[in-house]
Every structure is written in structure tokens, then in C-alpha cells.
């Protein structure tokens, strides 16, 4: 199934269809995001709304649609919102103030939803946590490297492992946060960045 994460009605329909097919709704990984590496003085102000609509509003709507089905089917579950280390720090090698701000908003959203849904289903929680990855080699990041060939080396030198991560390196953390292994964890953010923010 495909959906524009900015479309609230479509999000509701997709989650309802999934929950109806399985008779339950157990979890969510909300990962939709876009990025535009541009300095503030050169940034097209019209793109601010587009980025916030996808990176923040899209995550908000996904979580809301998922929670509605969890409540309907009385299946307390767990959500993982994908933030970024850039939502926690002034990322000196990423000139993208709007992206960084959108990820900071996702981190705060995770805390707020965890508080609001802590006893949502007959006293049982919908748990919400945020994964904050460091730099990952994705198609979006490869485009950044094409635009600025010096960027990869800067990012590799910026963390303690001297390399950039691959998407599959986050599977274990996501499975942990979705599963009962993290049953006492909610409203938290987990940073996995190769030590980038630990300097």
C-alpha cells in the first residue's frame, strides 16, 4: 500500500485496512522524511512548509492513525518515530536548519505522545519512542554527496568509528523498541550515531 503521509484521510484508510485484515494493530515505524542541504540565507521559504509537512506532520498523522486502530482493536502496541541526531545538536556539517528543526520536533512529539497515551487502552500503554540515527548512506544522502563531494569525508571523520552507517544497522534497535523487551521504555530517544554526539 502507498500513501502520501501528508494525507490524513488516506493514512486513516491505510491503517484501518491493515488492522482490519489482521484483527489488530501492534506497531509502527514512522520513517518518512525529506532533506535539503541549503544554508538559511539561500533557502527557499516556500520549501519550509513542504519539509515540515512530510517530516513532522506526516509522522504525527501516522502515529495518530496507528493509535486509532490500536485503541479500536484494544491492542496496546509500540511506535518508533525516526528522528535524527540532528534534532539534538547543532550539526556542524549539515547546513539544513529546517530539517534539523523538523527532527527536533519529532523527538518532542515522541515525548508528548508517550505521555498522552501512557494508559490509553484500559490502563495499558501505547508506547512511543524515537530512534535518532547518525549519518546513514541512503539515496537522499548520496544526493548530498553528489552536491558536495567533501561531505562524506567530513561525516566519516565526525564520528568515533570513522565511517557512515548502513540502514540495516538499525534493525536491532527498532526490533528492541517495538518488542516487549523494551516494555518499560517510553517517551525516550535512542541515539545510534557511531559516537558523533559523544565528543
From TrEMBL:
Q: Does the keyword Oxidoreductase apply?
A: yes
- What residue ranges are annotated as transmembrane? none
Matching Gene3D superfamilies, A to Z?
A: NAD(P)-binding Rossmann-like Domain
Where along the sequence do coiled-coil regions lie?
A: none
List, in alphabetical order, the Gene Ontology terms for molecular function in this entry: oxidoreductase activity, acting on NAD(P)H, oxygen as acceptor; oxidoreductase activity, acting on the CH-OH group of donors, NAD or NADP as acceptor
Arranged from A to Z, the UniProt key words for this protein are: NADP, Oxidoreductase
Which Pfam families does the protein's record reference?
A: adh_short_C2 (PF13561)
Presence of keyword Oxidoreductase: yes
Family recorded in the similarity comment: Belongs to the short-chain dehydrogenases/reductases (SDR) family.
Name listed for the protein in its UniProt record? Related to short chain dehydrogenase/oxidoreductase
Amino acid at each position: 500500500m502507498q500513501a502520501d503521509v501528508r494525507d490524513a484521510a488516506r493514512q486513516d484508510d491505510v491503517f484501518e485496512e491493515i488492522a482490519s485484515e489482521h484483527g489488530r494493530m501492534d506497531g509502527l515505524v514512522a520513517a518518512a522524511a525529506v532533506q535539503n542541504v541549503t544554508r538559511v540565507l539561500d533557502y527557499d521559504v516556500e520549501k519550509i512548509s513542504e519539509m515540515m509537512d512530510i517530516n513532522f506532520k506526516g509522522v504525527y498523522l501516522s502515529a495518530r492513525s496507528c493509535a486509532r486502530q490500536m485503541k479500536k482493536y484494544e491492542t496496546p502496541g509500540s511506535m518508533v518515530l525516526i528522528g535524527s541526531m540532528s534534532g539534538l545538536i547543532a550539526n556542524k556539517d549539515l547546513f539544513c536548519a529546517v530539517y534539523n528543526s523538523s527532527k527536533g520536533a519529532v523527538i518532542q512529539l515522541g515525548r508528548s505522545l508517550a505521555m498522552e497515551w501512557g494508559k490509553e487502552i484500559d490502563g495499558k500503554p501505547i508506547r512511543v519512542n524515537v530512534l535518532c540515527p547518525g549519518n546513514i548512506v541512503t539515496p537522499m544522502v548520496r544526493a548530498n554527496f553528489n552536491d558536495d563531494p567533501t561531505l562524506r569525508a567530513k561525516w566519516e571523520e565526525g564520528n568515533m568509528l570513522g565511517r557512515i552507517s548502513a540502514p540495516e544497522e538499525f534493525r536491532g534497535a527498532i526490533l528492541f523498541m517495538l518488542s516487549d523487551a523494551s516494555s518499560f521504555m517510553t517517551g525516550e530517544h535512542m541515539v545510534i550515531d557511531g559516537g558523533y554526539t559523544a565528543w
